[in-house]
From TrEMBL:
Protein name: NPAL2 protein
Bilayer topology annotation: Multi-pass membrane protein
InterPro entries the record matches: EmrE-like, Mg_trans_NIPA
One of the record's GO molecular function terms: magnesium ion transmembrane transporter activity
Membrane-spanning parts: 21-42, 48-67, 74-92, 112-132, 139-163, 175-195
Signal peptide annotation: none
Keywords, comma-separated and alphabetical: Membrane, Transmembrane, Transmembrane helix
GO cellular component: membrane
């Protein structure tokens, strides 16, 4: 954002990709996401996913510090609740290491709890999408719920892919199973639709 603001202030604005600051930010963002993906291979998803909100809080702090953006009471309250929730999840999540193999992922995908979860999620997503597209309900809660539903599938797919890659690196090849590629496609698709 700093790079965009600097470029916008110029009399002859250039594209953002010509800025070294912008490229530095993109590279750091990419490295952070690679680290986040790697964390899913070694830690439970219940630990890794909530820690993502720490980056949002860090961004809010940095934007106030460097970009002189104002912090509202709602921002402070939201940040405090996010930190408290993350603390509770990290503190009370059972630390049971679980190796994710292709066979386990296949078994989880056809188990009744996941099938019921997937059906409820798809129905809820379709209802929200109907209200958003057809009824023009553009409320922020509808958008956030649509993204959150997709994000839950992204977390499942990332955990499966990262776990299978980790298991393969340890010597037990998991990349030959079709479920690995199915989860890669699910991961990429849900990420793309969240951005859209």
């Amino acid at each position: 954002k700093c790079a965009h603001l600097r470029l916008a202030c110029q009399t002859d604005p250039k594209p953002c990709y010509t800025s070294k600051l912008w490229w530095c930010g993109i590279i750091l963002l990419g490295l952070g996401e690679v680290g986040n993906f790697t964390a899913y291979g070694f830690a439970p998803a219940a630990l890794v996913a909530p820690l993502g909100c720490v980056s949002v809080i860090g961004s809010a702090f940095i934007s106030g510090l460097f970009l002189k953006e104002t912090m509202r009471a709602a921002d402070i309250l939201g940040g405090t609740l996010a930190v408290a929730g993350t603390y509770l999840l990290v503190t009370f999540t059972p630390n049971v290491p679980q190796e994710i193999t292709a066979k386990k992922v296949q078994n989880y995908l056809v188990s009744w709890p996941f099938v019921i979860y997937a059906i409820i999620e798809i129905i809820t997503f379709c209802i929200l999408l109907y209200f958003y597209k057809r009824k023009a309900v553009k409320h922020i809660v509808v958008l956030l719920m649509l993204v959150a539903l997709l994000a839950s599938l992204t977390v499942i797919a990332v955990k499966a892919v990262a776990g299978m890659i980790t298991h393969s690196v340890k010597g037990k090849m998991q990349l030959a199973y079709p479920v690995f590629y199915i989860m890669c496609i699910l991961m990429a698709a849900t990420c793309a639709f969240q951005v859209k």
